Amino acid sequence: MFETNPNLQQFTIGIVYCFIASLAFPVYIQIIHTIYFTKELNDNVSYKLINTMNIGDLVQSFLHVLTGLFIIFPTLTQKVLTFVKIVGYTNNCLFNSSFVIIAVLALIRLGVAFFHLNTNKWKFWMKKKRQTQSYSSHRAEIAILIQASVLTTYMGLLMALWHNAELWFEMTDITLACLNGSWIVFPHLNSFLLIVTNRSIRMQFLTLRSSKPNFNVAASSTTGAKILFTRSSATVTMK
């Protein structure tokens, strides 16, 4: 059941998937903790939405680790195909949800930053912000706009590549690995932009890192079937 993939290339791809995806765990745990327990950030509607997306990205990273394990252990994967499909569909839904959240956030931040849109009009369950907006608050809105714009562009390009991959590329193991890899890298891009563009998060994050021990995340490591994920259909292709 736990026989490893005899295809060395695919086995290596599975190991790389697990390693890259697992690197997101310690970073996101600290970012989510920072936003949730920092009143200035947690009271901000934008950061609440961002933190919701962060939780989704953390779950996506866990599912990407499972994806790597499915590639490493093809025999086991064939015995739990229903579960494999559930993982694929769940990951697909989380990615699409993140795209909606970040696209809406980009449009709203554009209005707040340049057209003085009143953010109180689109909040429902969050606390109201003060009507007056300080310079630092305005700078925070610009930072969120930059982050949201970059992520929206990246996600849009990624979806275009996925849905046109068969027309634009020769679908080899390496091609699918690169496409999946660009999907797995998305949570890392989000966390990187959060830390770089938002000074409050960066300072709190660095303080938390220096006051607590570092997390150590270990990389996860019958048939000659090829087990490859296709994100657009959220299924496993068996060749």
From TrEMBL:
InterPro entries: 7TM_GPCR_serpentine_rcpt_Srt (IPR019425). Keywords: Membrane, Transmembrane, Transmembrane helix. Signal peptide: none annotated. The chain crosses the membrane at residues 12-37, 58-77, 97-119, 140-162, 174-196. This is 7TM GPCR serpentine receptor class x (Srx) domain-containing protein.
